[in-house]
Amino acid sequence: MVFTLKDTQENELCIVLASAAGIRNKNIEVIRAAIDKDYYIIVVTTNQLAGILKKNYEKHGIPDEKIYFVDAVTNYAGGTNIPRMKNCRYISNPGNLTDMGIAIIESIKDLEGKKACLLLDSINSMLIYIPSHNITKFIHFISNKLRIQNLSGIFLMVEKGIDPDVLSQLTTFVDEVIDSEKSDIV
Amino acid sequence: MARFSTSFSEERMKILTLIILAVICISLEILMHLYLGVSIGYTHFFYVLLVLAAIWYQKKAVVLAVILAITHIAVGYFIAGESIWAPALRGAMFVIVTLLVAILSEELEGARKQLVREKELLSESEGKLKVIFDSIQTGIVIVDPVTHNIVEANPVAIRLIGLPTEEIVGKVCHHFICPADTGKCPITDLGNEVDNAERVLLTAKGEKVPIIKTVTPIYLDGREHLLESFMDITERKLAEVRLKEINERYIGYIKEAAMRLKNPVEVVGQNIALLGEGIKNGDFSEDEIVSQLMLQSKNMEQIQENLRDLNKTIVDGFGELSPASKKFLTE
Questions:
Q1: Could you tell me the residue ranges of all domains in chain A?
Q2: Residue A43, SS3?
Q3: Does the predicted interface ipTM exceed a cut of 0.90?
Q4: Model-level pTM greater than 0.80?
Q5: C-beta atoms of B259 and A163 within 8 A
Q6: Helices B44-57 and B2-28, interaxial angle, to 10°?
Q7: DSSP string of A141-161, one letter each residue
């Protein structure tokens, strides 16, 4: 199923479940859907380098003017030779939730007054660096920030990649869980 | 010793009494029969001697009866010159009465001894039961089913409740061993069975001690009572909690391992596959390829670190592992 933001209401938070093989494409689908709905997007990436993502968006014909990045992996991977992008905040370590939180808040401030949406790609890759209970707290923190600012939020997650108990905790922070592979609302 | 000396003085008293009575009898025989020529009447006194002798010495008293009879016959027949039949008849009565009383006395003595023996056995049995009641490592409380008052409690029950015996006995049972409300006794009011059931004991300090309890109706002093036996299962409960904690820790370990080891490995595998595809298609510059490979390498290092962290969490929860095993799992 092709993901569209029609599936969610504005200023809502949702978890989007995708297959392990399809999560990269799901990122592109979500971005395209958000651009189509005139959203500014903050992409928080803990899985792919922001530069690679940008290249990928260009390859798929997605304009990048409205896309802001919080890149947690480029510096971590030692990618100092990779050109720095504008509209991108680099943090040193994907396990540093304080820096990530600050970068997200600053990006939100940059887009103050604009129709914006945050895309977190992905909760599964965050689990490489952060214990599940800390991720739960972080998602709670980010969800609260987004709600206060009346922003939308989409948290990408590999289906079957999260313990059901943790998923059920995360579910309480969002408005809905969309299993994009099954086109069911979980 | 005191019992022996009492018995010895009693024996002497009996012999002395019999000697005095025998002397009186002989004196009567001489005085009444030989000097006054009266052969009847006074001989009734002989029965006092003979009956007492028969009661005290049973058939041995027959010897005394025979001696008295021969004396009486001899005095009457040989000295007083009377007909032999009257003294012989009286003498025979002395022997017969003495023999009958002796037989009855023996029967009574046998019954008395049997009674004493049974009393001793009963007392011994009660003593054994008391020792068991006081020594058994199970709390036992006997309850009156009508008033629900505690009639008796053994030392274990007293220790568990934590009050002196006098503050437990006479009190209503549900103040201590069953927190049911008045009129809602599970046994007498609700008709339930309590057999190895887990219940709570209320101590004097207001603590709740988990117990396993059985209530059995018994007859005591001719009335129905409830015998409530219970064991403190605090240690067992703590062990269950500990086991549950260990299980939860294991389950937590497995879940966290799945999320932080298995799935990240899949993520890394997926990323490397996509990277390979991108390289094949010429999508990436050399720097981008190096950075992506470095990222996946760092991810693998982090996954190893996660494994060590998870092992450390588990190892810290157990004291049984040797230092060498702990080092192996956490370094």
A1: 2-114+128-151+169-185
A2: strand
A3: no
A4: no
A5: yes
A6: 160
A7: HHHHHHHHTT-EEEEEEETTS
